[in-house]
Design brief:
The protein is an alpha+beta fold and about 110 residues long. It contains 4 helices and 3 strands. A hairpin with a 2-residue loop joins strand 2 and strand 3.
């Protein structure tokens, strides 16, 4: 594991079927790592599905937004009969690293 990023460690496993190891990174943390390593770039839903799990990747994106206060936008476009869904994280020059982060309400 030394010398590898969090995303590289998780990429070595079969992500679509994998359950996180008891002491390993959570699927949310793997999705967050994917966004942080691709700051400002659009990531398609298939890639997020591969990292965040086939049936829970949307929840992982939501958890990144809510629990880690990450600004993640999404867009959809039509390509023939198919709808392409993509997500983009933008850090704005800072990274929140607290595991117990909460969003403050504007006062």
């Amino acid at each position: 594991m030394e010398g590898k990023t969090l995303l590289e460690v998780f990429t070595e496993q079969d992500r679509a079927e994998a359950e996180p190891a008891p002491n390993g990174p959570s699927l949310r943390d793997c999705v967050a790592a994917l966004f942080r390593e691709n700051d400002g770039q659009w990531i398609n839903a298939q890639r997020l599905m591969a990292v965040g799990g086939m049936f829970g990747w949307r929840s992982r994106v939501s958890d990144c937004r809510k629990q880690l206060c990450m600004f993640i936008e999404n867009r959809q476009s039509k390509e023939g009969k198919f709808t392409v869904t993509e997500y983009r994280y933008t850090s704005g020059g800072f990274t929140l690293i607290s595991e117990h982060a909460t969003r403050r309400e504007n006062r």
